[in-house]
Design a protein that fits this description.
Elements lengths: L3 E2 L3 E6 L2 E7 L2 E3 L2 E4 L5 E5 L2 E8 H22 L5 H15 L7 E8 L4 E6 L5 E3 L2 E4 L3 H11 L6 H18 L7 E7 L2 E8 L1 H6 L2
Antiparallel strand pairs: 1-7, 2-3, 2-11, 3-12, 4-5, 6-7, 7-8, 8-9, 9-10, 12-13
Helix pairs in contact: 1-2, 3-4
Length: 206
């Protein structure tokens, strides 16, 4: 049986930062296979992907994105842009769609040195730039929280708290989401915050 990450991940752009958050539970069918999965992966020192979908498919795409980013910088002499990374992922997903589709929903977030950016990429290769969004089985619940409380002028701390609140709401209502929340904040110079909110704390705060 394939290990599958039915999950909840969220992303927000606020001020000069991108905030990403994800739960830590991995499932296969109705079974919980792991409770400490890291679903936010750095691609470069200023860009990261969140995982939602089949774990193996997502891991392949993460490694491909890392390779492409390193190769681009070696050839061109400057870091790859977030838009180019999103286009690369879109190309791979659309190319394999009719042969061996990658069952994923991805959030690509980071900073290109000029501004923070957040992209949603689905299994068809469809790519959209977003201010805030969510993926995974718990995304309808998380999206409702983001929709009602997101503000352009909120502080980074408020945005990180909102990301946790959105995933926590999904955690309380979606059986495929659980076991804590990882948070990653990326600014102009790279990662400025990385933390894990334990399950017990999220439940106590509900």
């Amino acid at each position: 049986m394939k290990q599958e990450s039915k999950t909840t991940t969220v992303g927000l752009v606020v001020r000069d930062h991108v905030v990403l958050a994800a739960d830590k539970r991995a499932t296969a069918g109705a079974a919980v296979y792991h409770k400490q999965v890291k679903k936010i992966a750095l691609v470069t020192d200023r860009a990261a992907l969140t995982i939602s979908g089949l774990v193996a498919d997502a891991q392949f795409l993460i490694e491909n994105a890392r390779y492409y980013a390193r190769r681009y910088e070696a050839l061109v002499g400057k870091p790859i842009s977030l838009a180019s990374l999103a286009s690369r992922l879109s190309l791979i997903l659309s190319f394999y769609l009719r042969v061996y589709p990658f069952i994923v929903q991805l959030l690509l977030g980071g900073h290109d040195g000029n501004e923070p950016q957040l992209y949603y990429v689905d299994l068809y290769g469809t790519t959209t730039r977003e201010k805030y969004t969510a993926t995974g089985s718990g995304s309808p619940v998380a999206y409702g929280v983001l929709e009602s409380e997101y503000k352009d002028n909120m502080s980074v701390e408020e945005a990180a708290d909102l990301a946790v609140k959105a995933v926590k709401a999904a955690l309380m209502r979606d059986g495929f989401t659980g076991d804590g929340i990882d948070v990653l904040v990326i600014g102009r110079n790279g990662v400025v915050l990385e933390k894990t909110v334990p399950l017990k704390k999220t439940l106590e705060a509900s």
